[in-house]
Amino acid sequence: MFDDMLGTAMSERGKQLLKDFPALQVLHKHDRKGVNGMIKVAEDCEEYNRRYAEPMALEIDERIGRDHDYFNWDIVKAGCQYRFLSLAIPEGVGGIAGKYIVTNMALAVHELCSTCGGIGLIFGAHTLGVSPLITAGAMAHWDTVLHEIAEEEKKGNPVLMAYAITEPSAGTDVEDPEFLAKGKIGMEARRTKGGYVINGRKCFISNGREAKYLTLTAALDRNRPLETWTTFLIENGMPGYSTPRVERKMGQRASHATELLFEDVFVPDSHVLGYPGDGMVNGILMVMGASRGPVGAIATGIATGAYNHFMAWAKTRRNGHAPIDEERIRMAAADMHAMLCANRNLFINHALVADASFGKVLAHPLVNSTYLTPRAIRTSKPMYKLLNSMAGKAFINTLLGLFISDEEITHILALASMAKFHCADNAMKITSKALELMGADDSEDRRWVEKCFRDAKLCQIYEGTNQLNRLCLYDTEISKELTVEIPRPFRAPLKVEVN
Amino acid sequence: MIQILRTTETEEYRILRGTAADYAARVLAPVAEELDAPTGTPFLESMNKASELGVLRAFVAEESGGGGLDDYAFCVALEEMAVESAGAATALLIHNAALLPAIAASGAPELEAVMGAAFPMSLAYPGQVSLAGGKVSGQVPMAFNAPAASMFTVLARSTEGIAVAMVEPGSEGVEITPNEHQMGLRAARCGSLHLTAVEPLAIIQADNEMVESLERLLHLGFAAISAGIARKAFTTAHAYASERYQGGDIIVHHQALRLMMAEMVSGIEMSRAMIKSACEEGGLAPALACRIEATDRALRSATDGVQVHGGYGYMEDYGMERLMRDASWCQIYPRPNQESLLTLLDLVEG
């Protein structure tokens, strides 16, 4: 059924992937090359899990439980051979992102998290850090930052990114336009000659300490955060920037959640992504539109891991009795299976729809032809200046607006938010139920499921709490009160009516 | 702090509740994090001070130097302690459960050492242990308090039915493997126990009634501990929500969060009412029903308590994630809740 017409046998993983994701099975009939690329991603992640994550995951989790400053770089280095850090980096600058950028990302974190949510998060949070460079169309930095990540990765050197949004006094507030307008924001980027001076703190930033480059959102005026919300590129090592502490997390420990401190950090104009004041759109709504679905995939991956270990336990015979012999355990297995199916459909649904827009831009001949220009020209000073000029940004944004409509963006955000909260809630249901059924058991399977339970909880919290994601779904899709508009040149910033 | 629940408790229980709450806040709260250390033998010094509450030998008559408590009084003390450390409350529950058989067989001179055993004793149950020729052999996968135990109360099958063997940890043939990966209730550190032809200190002949009373105490105890966890989740979440500003208001004014916290209150009300009624009723079925409901509700309250705190709830510093881990462990001992539900129906059918 799944073998292609040329008779090339599909791998077992490939066959299973198409069974797990019926949408991909259909798509495989129409775009075999594209779906084969997804199968390759799943196979790579599976091999990585087998070779690196599985033998290390419990140990890393436990070690960080005792010594939360510990970070295992080897596990990140091992991902380089599979190009996990380049999943969202355009092919033109050395990455592997094509027209299925979001789908491949979702499938990758889903597969990685089925072994370890923390290790999966390292790669997921990295891509989250990359994404504002993409959504803001900040092409000047594609040839520098993204190119460096891709090229170093080919040599086996991981260069990590992170995205800093959350502030100590504003978690939910910075994820939603209506809330941000009323938010109490601590960080401020003050205008100065040739750039901005940033002061303040960010917290809970995944990969924060390890990242060489960070993307960051900050208000230019703390009293008008929504109108002045702006996305920046930060380089680790900029004077005044430090990472005072990492958190002691309940789960997903392999990736650090870090506090970032900015004390008079000067950031040049060239490091503003998109326009000053358009951060809510290019930095939050568009990024969340791409990333919340993959968070649903992370939750589903974690729950799948729990389910697999639960089933292994259920099938283990002790004193002549295996739990799976009992009807109630089979019923529970069926419930979990159904929830996982629903989850997978929700997140792949979002991913494919997102790729119909985002992926279309990245694979567009106009974008690709840019990279026919020799690199020496692309990275020349005048070109860098042009791309970073208002005219350059206006041109890129005009193109972006032609490729993706505002309605598409709003719809993608709705699907992403829906996948996020529903998958995360189901993951909690699955992991906690599995633990309750397994009972007082000293098996290694229970230890894995306990880790999944701890890991899963974070999925209900980050990328906007599940409560916020529900409101977002209502605003974007049900009441249609929130419409997302792609930043346009010389346009007044996004306005939101605040009740 | 807000008042969660009016209570019709008599003065005797009210006083005990107050004293236990004071003890928990004064002694347990400052060391709650140490008691939850991921590995090693927990910090149990503070538990010995619990003797002032009369809970270290709760069911030993007062004239014999015990607490002379009834079931409900013990539940009241456990609930109050669990507010600050569910693990410490569990260590206490297991210790008292392990003493039950010796109390039932009171007067036997060979049990003097058992009655005088230091805190904590461990209960090796349930497991696969048999008694033959005066020696016990077998294994118990999960025994609370095992690594620090002064004495093991081992339930074993013998040709004459059920027997309780009192085993000293240093005896030949006793092998204790501490569970270094315990997720919840860590102050009552678990271990697996392997017994190879161990000569017990004493053997107490037991019957089904003894096992039932033991199970009943465990069910009531875990219900009370769960109620304590849920209370902590609620009061901490409510206090945080009353200060945290988000979405243009303090978050306690957001309906989504009000609903979560209201459900915590209803869960606490229900658990407490069921505990009281189960203690008064006697019998295994009400205790079991109460345990199942209270532990399920506690996990939900703890999970929602973390959610109210957002990212902060997920970090160890705020103590909220510990409630989730502890609550999950309350659902499974001595048997998991779903399995217990089937037992409940069996009991009702008679």
Brief rundown of the structure:
The complex is a heterodimer of chains A (499) and B (350). By secondary structure, chain A is α+β, with helices and mostly antiparallel strands.
Structure description:
The complex is a heterodimer of chains A (about 500) and B (about 350). Chain A has about 500 residues and is an alpha+beta fold. Chain A folds into two domains: about 1-295 and about 375-410 and about 480-499, Butyryl-CoA Dehydrogenase, subunit A, domain 2 (Beta Barrel); about 295-375 and about 410-475, Butyryl-CoA Dehydrogenase, subunit A, domain 3, CATH 1.20.140. In chain A, about 55% of the residues lie in helices and about 10% in strands. Chain A is built from 18 helices and eight strands. Chain A has helices at about 10-20, 20-30, 30-65, 75-80, 100-115, 115-135, 140-155, 175-180, 225-230, 280-315, 325-360, 365-370, 375-380, 380-390, 390-405, 405-440, 445-460, 465-480; strands spanning about 160-165, 190, 195-205, 215-220, 230-235, 240-245, 255-270, 270-275. In chain A, the strands form two sheets. In chain A, strands 1-4-5-8 form a four-stranded mixed β-sheet. In chain A, β2 and β3 form a beta hairpin. In chain A, α16 (about 405-440) runs antiparallel to α17. The termini of chain A are far apart. The model of chain A has no long low-confidence stretch (mean pLDDT about 95). A four-stranded mixed β-sheet of chain B has the order 1-4-5-8. Chain B has a four-stranded antiparallel β-sheet with strand order 2-3-7-6, with helices on one face. Chain B has three domains: about 10-115, Butyryl-Coa Dehydrogenase, subunit A, domain 1 (Orthogonal Bundle), CATH 1.10.540; about 120-205, Butyryl-CoA Dehydrogenase, subunit A, domain 2; about 210-350, Butyryl-CoA Dehydrogenase, subunit A, domain 3 (Up-down Bundle), CATH 1.20.140. Chain B has eleven helices and ten strands. The termini of chain B are far apart. In chain B, about 55% of the residues are buried. Chain B has about 350 residues and is of the alpha+beta class. The longest helix of chain B has about 35 residues, at about 210-240. Chain B is globular, with a radius of gyration of 20 Å. At the A-B interface, α3, α8, α16, α17 and α18 of A face β9, α8, α9, α10 and α11 of B.
